[in-house]
Protein: MarR family transcriptional regulator
Organism: Streptomyces bugieae
Amino acid sequence: MTTDSDTPWLTDQEQRAWRTHLDVSRLLMHQLERDLQPFGLTNNDYEILVNLSEAEDHRLRMSDLAASTLQSKSRLSHQITRMENAGLVRRESCESDRRGLYAVLTEEGWDTMRRVAPHHVASVRKHFIDLFSPDDLQALRASLTPVAEHLRVQRGTI
Amino acid sequence: MTTDSDTPWLTDQEQRAWRTHLDVSRLLMHQLERDLQPFGLTNNDYEILVNLSEAEDHRLRMSDLAASTLQSKSRLSHQITRMENAGLVRRESCESDRRGLYAVLTEEGWDTMRRVAPHHVASVRKHFIDLFSPDDLQALRASLTPVAEHLRVQRGTI
DNA sequence: GGGGATTAATTCACTATTCAACTTTTAACA
DNA sequence: TGTTAAAAGTTGAATAGTGAATTAATCCCC
């Protein structure tokens, strides 16, 4: 950040857009978390399950999993430990790089995923996707994509 | 949530919109947090300061502050304790309702707010607002507003 | 005006996250 | 080759967040 003190304040429109975005982010995460609770999962748990489910052999290197879930290695490590204790994943060592570990979906993890996913999708639809017209959704994606890219670049250049 | 197992899966378009939204939310919060770090504030701290700054007499009832920042009372209580220790706010008892407390901005809190706000605005512009065309921003707000309203209703009916 | 429900806020015990320090293995390169 | 630097991952202590239980004041209404 340059410490520009001549940055213009947000206009009313901008202010409202910004706050609405903030509110939606927060309220949505809350709601999804609540909808997952009956299944004994958190949003974080679920995201790990999704990533592993979509990965080849249901396994990913810890680093890759951390990167794709945007978490720190430390946080992921703790997270995987918890999920390991819950029987959803296990760690397996990596032959090609003896520093490395895979997080692997267990049978139970995979079953859980298949059981919970429909409910989660319903939740995402009900509280987000289905509240937009197809055009609005398309516009949303289009205008958000460059923002995501910008932020990814920023993130890289720590 | 109804446990509809016949909810259609997300289309490719929907999937992408959804994941982009998720990524932007998370990356953005991260980036803002990072930009606030040099000033010794977290996003939460900053949001409390904003709310108090905008309130009459720089004071708000704990409950109102919790509601407007979408936090639980418990969390807010801890948060205010930390900010009190940091000298940014203080608690004051409420005459009209002896159960109640006000969180009040201290001089130092107000100074901090005035000092940090321009940098925060610059950060919000750089990483969010200025990445949209005015029309896109307007469209974003328009399509997000009903979502926020929907989620607020859900939240109320706990 | 007195008893039961509600509301404001905090506290306690527990879980989650962060940040820095650490171990082990691999890569670089002189 | 040896030696240093970088990367993968974990650990541990400190901080933050959650949810249920608790305290104290107010509301209600008969």
Remarks:
- Helices of chain A lie at 12-36, 43-54, 62-68, 73-85, 107-127, 134-156.
- Residues 42, 44, 71-72, 74-75, 78-79, 82, 97-100 of chain A lie near DNA strand C (CB under 10 Å from a C1').
